[in-house]
Amino acid sequence: MLLGKRWASLLIFMLIFSTFYSQISSSKSDPYAAKKKRMSQKVRQMFYHAYDNYMTYAFPHDELKPLTKSFTNSLSELGNLKLERLPQEYNGSALTLIESLSSLAILGNNTEFEKGVLWLSENLTFDVDARINLFECNIRVLGGLVSAHILATDSTNRLTKGTYSNQLLVLAEELGRRFLPAFDTPTGLPYAWINLKHGVMENEITETSTSGCGSLILEMGALSHLTGDPRFESAALRALRKLWSMRSSLNLVGTTLDVETGEWIEFSSGIGAGVDSFYEYLVKAHILFGRDEFWRMFQPAYTAVQKYFRHGPWYHEADMRTGRATYWQLTSLQAFWPGLQVLVGDITAANSSHREFFYVWQKFGVIPERYLLDHQMLHPTEKYYPLRPELAESTFYLYQATKDPWYLQVGESIVDSINLHTRVEGGFASIRDVTTMELEDHQHSFFLAETCKYLYLLFDDSFLVNRNYVFTTEGHPLPILSSWHERLPEAYIPSNWTSVKSEERRKRASAMSQRICPATSPNCRNDHEQLESVCHIPDTRADYRCLTDDDCGVDSMSCRRRSCSMAGYCGLWLS
Ligand code: DMJ
């Protein structure tokens, strides 16, 4: 008995010591480990507070009204997606559930992920007389389903054996087929609205946005790769090519256009509403499909943005024909731009505009929808903050790229503000007016698909370790597979990469810098293995500082050589 007690004390001592020791050693390798753990748990709780309340008070409708603990079928603005085997009067598409699946997978909640997958498999149908917005339905519903299908079938055995036989892909394919009539225009540019049952309605409006035509390629391209039906990718690609052909001589695009005539309607544009994801999808399509064509569009488009819209760290709007500034406004949606800049290696520029967005966040407590830079005041009618993700998204990318603890601090401050100002008993509510913090009865689905996801990944990126993903504009991960890649141009592949790449440097590469495995490489062991890019050569210094071009490596995504800027940073500097 005494011996038993002694053994027990010894065991307890060893346990405490080993926990203490492992904490010391993990904090030795990462001094911010404890903070990250605490913050990731906090974000996890935020996600479940939003998700559980949705499931309790709103599911299977589209979105939660957290103040009244009721629901809104917000897709009915986008169109009603009715559910099979439910009373006829019921409308709803379980939008927030579809949008939550990839976040549940990232949080490692296989039980809830499986429940959601099986429920949708049995209940969701698109055979409904409903007018939907093509762009929104594509990024939220099609993107959510395609991503969840991939997560359901990856090698992690997320689902109980035998329960899944591609039901989500079947649904996604059906939805994709219902999108196709929208592209049947003289220009190939899709209508903004389509009836899922009857196709394009009579007298349908012909005006759409640049994002509406230029942000379909990730989801529809992935759908083609998964189903073997090329029609989805072809339709999206044709629209994107047409859109690009409509650029001005300055390589600028407008914000709205007519799909029948192919004429611009709104010539002023920027990097925010109506245009944002067009730029995002050019670079992400290049990463996902390895097609040089996307980079050839992105490179001049990015250069034009930096030349005509940028004013120091701020971005204003300009007329696509003249390049002259039109509106000097900061919008909440623009805050995704630093994240995009990280993807192309433009870290210094990303950091400087991220700081300005965060400055505005701190000034108001959250980021307002629109701020008039020239008058230094809020837009009179756009004072709201609907729980948008863009600043958190850029913060996540910048932390991945730099490991600068400053971004953890930013993330913590975002988490604290959201909890302080928007958390209510029934979920998280949007802010109607950032000057009074008056709330609005709406918890958008992107709060679960994006805001919580990026905040969580900022503090816990274990989901990304040894995996390569591109996140769609709605935050749904798509894996980068060599089997989806076209051959990279020879010029992009340096011949001496093997000698430069050392084991030690390899280990240092973050998840974000582990990229494509070009199909041309003999080192790609098999189609589905996600390896670090064979062309990737890290910069000599981990902080990207340089004296000459020789200190810079080769970008892991585009396989393009990085160069040393005048400020002494390696990047994909565009001339
Ligand atoms: C999301 O639906 C997507 O990020 C989209 O690209 C733009 N905005 C919202 C969130 O703010």
Beginning-to-end CA distance, first to last residue? 78 Å
Mean of residue pLDDT values? 85
How many β-strand runs?
Answer: 22
Largest sheet strand order: 5-6-7
Rough outline: globular
Percent helix, as a range, is: 40-55%
Ligands: 1-deoxymannojirimycin
Binned strand content: 5-15%
Uncertain runs are 1-5, 7-25, 488-534
User: Number of DSSP helices?
Assistant: 19
Class computed from helices, strands and strand pairing? mainly alpha
The major pleated sheet works out as:
3 strands, antiparallel
Radius of gyration: 24 Å
Summary?
It contains 19 helices and 22 strands.
Keywords:
575 residues; mainly alpha; three-stranded antiparallel sheet; 19 helices; 22 strands; 45% helix; 10% strand; disordered N terminus; binds 1-deoxymannojirimycin; EDEM1/2/3
